Amino acid sequence: MTRFSKDFIFGTATSSYQIEGAYKEDGRSLSIWDTFSRIPGKVWNMDHGDVACDHYHRYEEDVEILTTLGVDSYRFSIAWPRIFPEQGKYNPAGMDFYKRLITKLKENNIKPSVTLYHWDLPMWAHELGGWTNRESVNWFKEFASICFEELDADVDSWITHNEPWCAGFLGYHQGVHAPGHTNMEEALKAVHHILLSHGEAVDLLKNQFQSKTPIGITLNLSPVYAASNSTNDRLAANNADGYGNRWFLDPVFKGSYPVDMMNLFSKYVHDYRFIQAGDLEKISIECDFFGINYYSRSIVEFSSAADFLYKGAYSDYDQTGMGWDIAPNEFKELIRRLREEYTNLPIYITENGAAFDDVVAEDGRVYDTERQKYVEEHIAAVADLNDEGMNIAGYYLWSLLDNFEWAFGYDKRFGITYVDFETQKRTLKETGHRYADVIRTRTI
Ligand code: FCB
Predict the structure, then answer these.
(1) What's the CATH architecture for 9-441?
(2) Which residues line ligand 1 (CB under 6 A)?
(3) What's the pTM value of the predicted model, to 2 decimals?
(4) Is the pLDDT of residue 321 over 80?
């Protein structure tokens, strides 16, 4: 039975720092990930993205893989330090790479879906305070503006930001992502400026450029469950949901920050004046779609010792190689909740996938059965949701290639293409072959 219409978008996703390499080429300057990955203890094995998948030089071969898969669309991001290696200094040579890539995609009938910010903030911006500095909104606008000017004619959809939760909270509060800070006040400012820059970019594209290209934001969302029905555990779940989901969903869709969380965060932030008049109207500007990255559910319990009164609880679910619960049913519950509480916009699943320890078999193939099962279950969930009328317009598998998995370096493989990082040889895993069948037959 056909379960996906002809216009449903199947794709794969990547991001610049994770795959490109060529970290000094054609005028690129350093990003916060280039420097963060060089601090001992921050990234597994002290891995870094100097070469990564060498995609900068091998993009043609990688587009061929996309063609083999038969995807409708490819989601990638633009490295800001290629475009503005210094403040205010545009570098056309860096932009040319994306033009070449887009041309190649178009030749193969693959729709480019372009993310402006997938975490590689230029070091020059970081040195001026990074996202904690309200000026970052203007720097981002300048970057977005040149991308729109140069690329909009050939881009099928724009995503302003990928996962502000990670950029803001993992980067400035938990310190596990670049720039590695551990300051909640900085984190809240960073998130606010990231969200504001999203609104500004949408406004720019729609009102200044008068473009009809769809634009939206991608949030990572994880539905939160309480370990028990006790008052304490339910409070814990509420707080975890506030920290992980509502702090982003509410401003984007309701034009307000959740007051319960403002109270909780006021342990660290006594002055919310960085939220200025008009900001929340800008942040909640109307978009054309909503992007969601979904990997897992969360289960939490009360902890009086924890900052926000919750901690991860024991789970008996099967897990991926990241130790993340495999939870396609909870994915459905998440989407239903979003429909009820937040938005009617078309939803794109802009990332979904799983890391497992892959091995290349003697026959040269990669039999990644666990990943295949994960992907099949989640694509089936998308089909079920659409049967319920949930209007999911597309699904992007993370990721096209094994790549630099941030703090986990090259230790965690999310690709549907196996990459031998010594030789740069690519091998489509069994999940990749299966995905090609799903796309061709539109069935699961
Ligand atoms: C998401 C990121 C992506 C990748 C996957 C596994 O949080 O957007 O870059 O790391 O997780």
Answers:
(1) Alpha-Beta Barrel (3.20)
(2) 15, 18, 162-163, 166, 220, 293, 351, 398, 405-406, 414
(3) 0.99
(4) yes
